[in-house]
Design goal:
- 40% of the residues lie in helices and 20% in strands.
- It is of the alpha/beta class.
- The protein has three domains: 256 residues, TIM Barrel (Alpha-Beta Barrel), CATH 3.20.20.70; 91 residues, no CATH class; 123 residues, Alpha-isopropylmalate synthase LeuA, regulatory domain (Double Stranded RNA Binding Domain, 2-Layer Sandwich).
- The strands form four sheets. The chain has an eight-stranded parallel beta barrel, surrounded by ten helices. Strands 11-12-13 form a three-stranded antiparallel sheet. Strands 14-15-16 form a three-stranded antiparallel sheet.
- The protein starts with 6 loop residues before the first strand and ends in a 5-residue tail after the last helix.
- It binds acetyl coenzyme *A (ACO) and pyruvic acid.
- The site of pyruvic acid has 8 residues, from strand 5.
- The site of acetyl coenzyme *A has 14 residues, from strand 4 and helix 4.
- Belongs to the alpha-IPM synthase/homocitrate synthase family.
- It catalyses: pyruvate + acetyl-CoA + H2O = (3R)-citramalate + CoA + H(+).
- This is Citramalate synthase.
- It holds the Pfam family HCS_D2.
């Protein structure tokens, strides 16, 4: 069980699920909870039982299907309605019956919200808090209180906001999490208010939204001011601009401020966990996310690479391995010799200074014509092999290719491609049909080569991106095609550039097949 002196409290399954476009099934919620427990968070807020059947079901299934090693489940809900007893409020009953050891109650702490949104008196709101907290405590549940709009409330009526905090603490709430519900706060002012709340004598937590882009900074400022309970969401999910990214918060506190929040081994697994959660939520991972993003330790500028060659710490704030991420070199027209040398080493090649120089020149020249190698590692490796081996031996030589697109009498569009290749001393002609010209070419080239290279059966074209460069030239614009291919062990990307989209696609396709054969360990 996690240390109770400082809480890492995750609200992905409740506030994270309030993100536009994010929709989790009960099975998804259970899967995310297991990942969060693997990270070692102390509390997982599972949702609002009683508010919808899915969240009620989550808490029911969690009792038998979740075997949490670190975390405790928290059920979220509101204080009782005005004018009824907590014991008689059906939503409070759902919290009581959720099976969760912890209940987090949202309560109004802003006087205007009490009067306008709850449409009750300030005294009745305090009674709602007192009554609900003490009722759930008496039922044996631990209670935390989310003081909604606390910072805006404090600015409007500090005495009342602090009265809410004291009332909850006196009734038995262990933590009063101060919520920047509208996400409008900046760190300095927020820290001052947290300091005042801590002085009032309660254990204070912090719950920040990212509407000013300061949710993580505000959370860290609150901790500095005395908060000992941090709330946030995996990958920064949440209502509007999101919540404080819990991964960033944990990494900052543990690696920069010396807190011992999650096991080191779990922290070193954080990048995998962050990506595993995106698989469940079906939200594209933010490659620029701090610590866990694919680009978080990717270096593009030549000057950076030249210093990194001497010591990676010169251009990195931490060792990426501490959060399970990796340093990557990007090769582009911003690369210098060091970038290319390090990228070559990453790929398993020790390049001579002459080869490095030639490669830098070829990359800069090709990028000026529209190629992009940072997005096409496989094309860069083929270029590197050409440079090192003079003209690299080929698995196959292309004599010609042709594509016909036909609109049939019935209105159907059919593409037919013919490729003529030479491989292993044979001349092979093959024809493929597809729903588009690239699909037809892909089928034809595999048909031609699969009899000689059966491993091509595993190759799959998984993504195809087209970009028109210099589009002011109208039909003379250059087309760049990026193809991502996969086999049963991984993915690779190739690039083609030409005035004609089919020609650019063919270049990327031909390299994809060649690289696939090299990956499979095929000699020419
Ligand atoms: C800041 C936050 O993000 S808190 C989390 C918010 N999350 C959600 O709202 C998602 C889940 N919510 C729901 O499913 C529904 O809103 C429910 C089931 C909770 C309530 O639904 P309904 O009964 O139809 O009420 P409705 O949503 O229209 O309004 C909310 C009611 O809760 C009351 N309320 C709001 N905050 C509180 C509070 N802290 N304590 C007690 N009552 C509250 C409002 O005054 C309003 O009361 P009214 O019905 O008398 O007008
Ligand atoms: C409780 C909550 O989610 C908020 O005030 O933002």
């Amino acid at each position: 069980m996690a240390d109770d002196r400082f809480h890492v409290y995750d609200t992905t399954l409740r506030d994270g699920a309030q993100q536009e476009g994010l929709n989790l099934t009960v099975a998804d919620k259970l899967a995310v909870a297991r990942h969060l427990d693997g990270l070692g968070v102390g509390f997982i807020e599972g949702g609002w039982p009683g508010a919808n059947p899915k969240d009620t079901e989550f808490f029911r299934r969690a009792q038998t299907e979740l075997d949490l090693k670190h975390a405790q489940l928290a059920a979220f809900g509101a204080t009782r309605r005005a004018g009824v007893k907590a014991a008689d409020d059906p939503l409070v009953a759902a919290l009581r019956e959720s099976g969760a050891p912890v209940v987090t109650l949202v309560a109004k702490s802003h006087d205007r919200h009490v009067e306008l949104a709850l449409r009750t008196t300030l005294q009745e709101n305090l009674a709602m808090i007192r009554d609900t907290v003490s009722h759930l405590r008496a039922e044996g549940q631990r209670v935390f209180l989310d003081a909604e709009h606390f910072f805006d409330g404090y600015k409007s009526n500090p005495a009342y906001a602090l009265e809410v905090l004291r009332t909850a603490a006196e009734a038995g709430a262990d933590v009063i999490a101060l919520c920047d519900t509208n996400g409008g706060m900046l760190p300095d002012e927020l820290a001052d208010i947290v300091h005042e709340a801590v002085q009032a004598g309660a254990r204070v937590g912090i719950h920040c939204h990212d509407d000013t882009g300061c949710a993580v900074a505000n959370t860290l400022a609150a901790v500095k001011a005395g908060a000992t309970h941090v709330q946030g969401c995996a990958n920064g999910y949440g209502e509007r601009s999101g919540n404080a990214n819990l991964f960033t918060v944990v990494a900052n506190l543990q690696l920069k401020r010396g807190f011992d929040l999650v096991p080191q081994a779990a922290l070193a697994d954080m990048t995998r966990i962050a990506h595993a959660i995106t698989e469940v939520t079906n939200v594209t991972p933010n490659s620029h996310a701090p610590y866990v993003g694919m680009s978080a330790f990717a270096h593009k500028a030549g000057l950076h690479a030249s210093a990194i060659k001497v010591d990676p710490n010169l251009y990195q704030h931490i060792d990426p391995a501490a959060v399970g991420n990796d340093m990557r070199m990007l090769v582009s027209d911003m690369a210098g010799r060091a970038s290319v040398e390090l990228k070559g080493r990453e790929m398993g090649y020790e390049l001579t200074p002459e080869h490095t120089k030639t490669l830098v020149e070829r990359v800069k020249d090709l990028e000026s014509k529209g190629f992009t190698f940072e997005a096409a590692d496989a094309s860069f490796e083929l270029l590197l092999r050409d440079t090192v081996a003079g003209e690299r031996k080929r698995h196959f030589e292309v004599e010609s290719w042709r594509v016909i697109v036909e609109r049939t009498k019935g209105g159907e569009l059919v593409s037919e491609a013919t490729v003529k290749v030479h491989a292993k001393g044979e001349r092979i002609v093959a024809t493929g049909e597809g729903n588009g010209p690239v699909n037809a070419l892909d089928k034809a080239v595999r048909l031609a080569l699969e009899q000689l290279y059966p491993e091509l059966a595993k190759l799959e074209l998984v993504d195809f991106k087209v970009r028109i460069l210099e589009d002011t030239h109208g039909t003379d614009a250059i087309t760049r095609v990026l193809i991502t291919s996969s086999d049963d062990t991984g993915e690779w990307a190739t690039v083609g550039v030409a005035e004609n989209i089919i020609d650019a696609s063919w270049q990327a396709l031909e390299q994809a097949v060649t690289y696939g054969l090299l990956r499979a360990g095929r000699d020419c």
